[in-house]
Amino acid sequence: LSLADRWILAEFNQTIKAYREALDSFRFDIAAGILYEFTWNQFCDWYLELTKPVMNGGTEAELRGTRHTLVTVLEGLLRLAHPIIPFITETIWQRVKVLCGITADTIMLQPFPQYDASQVDEAALADTEWLKQAIVAVRNIRAEMNIAPGKPLELLLRGCSADAERRVNENRGFLQTLARLESITVLPADDKGPVSVTKIIDGAELLIPMAGLINKEDELARLAKEVAKIEGEISRIENKLANEGFVARAPEAVIAKEREKLEGYAEAKAKLIEQQAVIAAL
């Protein structure tokens, strides 16, 4: 099985364990949250993305493994969710069961999923979490620097731990496909590299060289407009909170909400100023 397949099986079994514990203690609210977290954030988000390199260019054996894992986890997830969302799970299960070779008439008479500790691959969990960190870091750089999502980037890594370098070498396909990378290069620890935007993740520093990716003057002008816009919002809220009449009449919840907005704008301004400094140094 691929790393993604081993990871989702480990995540699913951890979910089964936590979900059953919540049901056993009658914490149906916690059970529903556990189910939502796995379904939305792990299975439908990351796992489906991580299968793309295999589906688009894997060997026949890899394709068989991923297809089998996909339908196996989906079928088990439907059984897990059935007590909380019975009708839709029955409807979907009637279609999925054919792919799994199941001939039973209804999901209601199927066994409830059992936790299998042998499928919790700790190495797969750790390696995949690291890959997710790296992919998110590259995507954040794209967003912060206003780089088009489809533009291939050069990724440099510096100061890699042994684990980080191994993870890069073993999973270049995942990284290049999901982070849209043109190339991946591991630099020596003392190599300063070209002028780049950097992010620190566990065991490595990621660098994306900026040369040729953005128009420096245009981007600085855009950021200046964003800063001015946020400063206007900050000024508006500060004036509102300085108004004794507003503070005296407004409910505490409304005042708290305005203060929360002010903090959010202040954080956004600080990030924009940081981006300005990075781009000005290019």
TrEMBL record:
Coiled-coil regions, chain positions: 213-275
Domain Methionyl/Valyl/Leucyl/Isoleucyl-tRNA synthetase anticodon-binding: 5-155
Ranges where the Valyl-tRNA synthetase tRNA-binding arm domain occurs: 217-275
Catalysed reaction, written as an equation: tRNA(Val) + L-valine + ATP = L-valyl-tRNA(Val) + AMP + diphosphate
Keywords assigned: Aminoacyl-tRNA synthetase, ATP-binding, Coiled coil, Ligase, Nucleotide-binding, Protein biosynthesis
One Pfam family named in its UniProt record: Anticodon_1
Superkingdom of the organism of origin: Bacteria
One BP annotation, GO: valyl-tRNA aminoacylation
GO cellular component: cytosol
PANTHER family: VALINE--TRNA LIGASE, CHLOROPLASTIC_MITOCHONDRIAL 2 (PTHR11946:SF93), VALYL-TRNA SYNTHETASES (PTHR11946)
Sequence similarity: Belongs to the class-I aminoacyl-tRNA synthetase family. ValS type 1 subfamily.
Protein name: Valine--tRNA ligase
Species in which this protein is naturally found: Gallibacterium anatis
